[in-house]
Each structure stands twice: as C-alpha cells, then as structure tokens.
Amino acid sequence: MDSSQNVDVNQALLQPQADHGTVPSHGELERVLSDVETPLFLRLRKATMIESKLLFKLAAPAVIVYMINYLMSMSTQIFSGHLGNLELAAASLGNTGIQIFAFGLLIGMGSAVETLCGQAFGGKKYEMLGVYLQRSTVLLTLTGVLLTVIYVFSKPILIFLGQSPEIASAASLFVYGLIPQIFAYAVNFPIQKFLQSQSIVAPSAYIAAATLFIHLLLSWLAVYKLGMGLLGASLALSFSWWIIVVAQFVYIVKSERCRETWRGFSVQAFSGLPSFFKLSAASAVMLCLEFWYYQVVVLLAGLLENPELALDSLSICMTIVGWVFMISVGFNAAISVRVSNELGAGNPKSAAFSVIIVNIYSFTATVIVAIVLLACRDVLSYAFTDGEKVAAAVSDLCPLMALTLVLNGIQPVFSGVAVGCGWQTFVAKVNVGCYYIIGIPLGAIFGFYFKFGAKGIWTGMLCGTLIQTVILAWVTFRTDWVKEVEEASKRLDIWSDKKREVVSE
C-alpha cells in the first residue's frame, strides 16, 4: 500500500466520472458527502440511499450468480450422497480437497482483472478492459494445464495426505470428471470480473439460473438413468460450467453494453504477461489462502478416528457454510467494484462510505441466516444423506457453523476492499500469519492433542479467521482514501500503456 512514485492527486481527484453502460452517476455520491453545508444526518441519509441503489444493482445479481454456481456443486454432492455414504465422502473430498484447490487458485488469479478493470472503468479507459480479460484468460489457461497434473494424480496425493485408500480411490474417480471444469474456470473468472467491473451482473444471473436447471437434469440422467455414478455426476458439473462460459462470452460479443470495452481479440493479450503474472500471483496467493483454509479442515478430519463420519458431517457443514458464504462473496464482488470504480474516478469519500454500508448489509444478512440454520440444526443433514449418526454429528457442529457464518458476514467484504484497492500482497501476508501460523496449528492441537475431534479443528481455525478479520478491519478503517486515489491513478498510467510492453509496478 506504500508508494515510491509521485503523482498529481488533483488530476486524479478531478478525473471525470464513469457514465458508461447503466452505471448510475458515482459523482453524485461524492458531491453529497462533500456538501458540508447540509446537516450531517441529512447528508448520511441521502448518501445511504444513493449507495444502496448503486450497491444492490451489483450485489443482488452477484449473490444470485455465486449462490447458483455453488448450488451446482452442492447439488452434485447431494446426488452423489444419495448413492451411499462412501460416495458422499468421496464427492466431498473431491470437491473440498481437490476441486477447491483449483477454484481458489484460478479465482484468485482472476481477481487481478477485478482490480485493473474496475479502476480502468472508473477512469474511462474502456478499451483496456478487453485486453485485461484476454491476458488473464491466457494466464489462467496455462495454469489450468499444470493443475490437470494434480487432478490426474489425485489418488496418490490423497493417500499421501493420509486419506483412506477406499475413499481416495472413489474421490479420484470423481475428480477425473472435473478436469474439463478447470478450463471452464480459467475462462469464466476473467469474464465474470470483466462484466462485474462494468456493473453488468444481471445477465450472468439469468445465465446461471437457466444453467442450474439444465445441470439438475443432466445430473439426474447421468447418475440415475445412465448409471454413471460418481464420474457421471462430475462430468455433468463440468459440462454445465462450460454452458455458463459460452453463454457469457456470446453476451459480451453481441451486447451493445460491451461495445466500448470488448473490441475483439488482440495480440496485446500476449504482451506484458510476466508483469501481469506478478499481479495475478499476488491476487492468487491472497484468495487461495482463504479458500484453502477450510479445505484443510476436511483434510484433517480424514485423519480422525471414524474418518467417514467426520468427513460426512464436516463436509455437509462446510457445504452449507460455503453456500451461505456466497452471499458475502456477492457483497465481496460488489464492494470490490464499488471501491475500484470510485478510486479510478477519483472519489475517495465515496469509496470509504461504500465500505461501511456494505459491511452493514452483509453482516445483517448472514446473522439472519445463521439464526435460521440453528433453528433447523437437527434436520439439515437429511438433504444430503439419510444417516442418523451423520444428522446428530451435524447438529452438534451447528453452533460453530453459525459463528463461522456471522464472521463471514464481514471478512469477505474486507477482502473485497483489498482487491478493489490492489492490496493483495499485504493481505496475502496477513492470511499466511493468521491462517497457517495460528489457525491450523491451533485446530490440530484442539482436534488431536486435546481430542476434541472435528469441533476442535474447526474452533482453532475459527480463531485464525477472527484475528485476520480484526487486522483487516483495523487497516481498512485507518486507510487514507485520498492516497488510494493516487495509487489507483498511478496503476492506470502503468497498466494502460498500449504502445509498449507493460512494465511492472
């Protein structure tokens, strides 16, 4: 977040507002917040109404997109679970132990597009958005080739990590069918960030909703009618993701709303890749460490006594947490766009105000959901499996699940702020310390040394999340937003030079 370069902040502050597409005038919010002649209460009330309108045009469709995308994976796990407890454990391990590895890495690398596209859009440098999209897709596809090796050797990897050979064998079969999904991720995440940075989110929501119905039909046919079992379930999921990718790309090419930001394929996509990789790698490390963190819970659970019951109960809880987490991920996407757009447009007060409003909305939503889930704790697991022992274990873990949901109401928002500002390297360091130096060791101590089992593992890791959230909250609310405008202006100057290869920040 520190800078060694000088910039004229006045130029950044006076930069014209983005009015492309259907984005409301962000400059109105800055004018309201800067109007010292209006009483504070009236100022805040009007600013809240403006911000809420801007926010929910982004957040509501984004929440729908992420929840439906996650629901596709969740439904695949449900189809697998009704084949038997072994199949549920295998699908859970494949989804949470292997697939989330690729998901975290690729969505993390894709968040570099979120930073650059959001700030370029706010600064009216529309032609660069398509270039950033293509550069990111090239990098993510190359990364996908490397990830394929992990998928192919998933069985020995899982056995090496201590999983039982029977579960590892079944999980590897499930994972083989997810290989095409890797490359769907590689294309989808840059497209998703490209559209979100322009506040174009509703089309993705419509596409995701339509694909969900197709996916459920395909899964039913593959698992029950064609008898393809675990492999059929995962292949159906991969195919469904490619439907989303193709539909979104067709929208970009055909839509008038993307006319200025998508100008066709360009050789610039292959220029400056090493420098672009550095920013993508920092983004990947930041988000991967978050996605992989709870993956470790499931992997550690496989080392406990009666690993099948521990895996089943924890994976059900983590699946529910992950689904509800998509609410916060939607707000994460919204705040990232809001902050990056406002910084790119030179509106520091608007960026700061948006952070506060988004936190309030996200926290309130997750608290409500946590209360509902606690009320339904005894019946939650029956959506996944008919086992009574699993139901009792899930009910026992529900209080920890509720605490996790409440904490997740604000933590992803601060991560979104980090992406919007380009703080990925700093947050990656915080994540390493809180998650992997504090959280995981505490979880292992509570789970194995003190013999608290799955509850102990989860409790220790929840401590790491709490510390990380407090640190990010402290940093965010002490941020000099005028200085962040300067940083955004410099970043745009560096990354929008189209006549020569991009240089490193």
From TrEMBL:
Gene Ontology CC terms, in alphabetical order: membrane
GO aspect biological process, one term: xenobiotic detoxification by transmembrane export across the plasma membrane
GO function terms (MF aspect): antiporter activity; xenobiotic transmembrane transporter activity
Its membrane topology: Multi-pass membrane protein
Location(s) in or outside the cell: Membrane
Keywords: Membrane, Transmembrane, Transmembrane helix, Transport
PANTHER family for this protein: MULTIDRUG RESISTANCE PROTEIN (PTHR11206)
The family this protein is said to belong to: Belongs to the multi antimicrobial extrusion (MATE) (TC 2.A.66.1) family.
UniProt protein name: Protein DETOXIFICATION
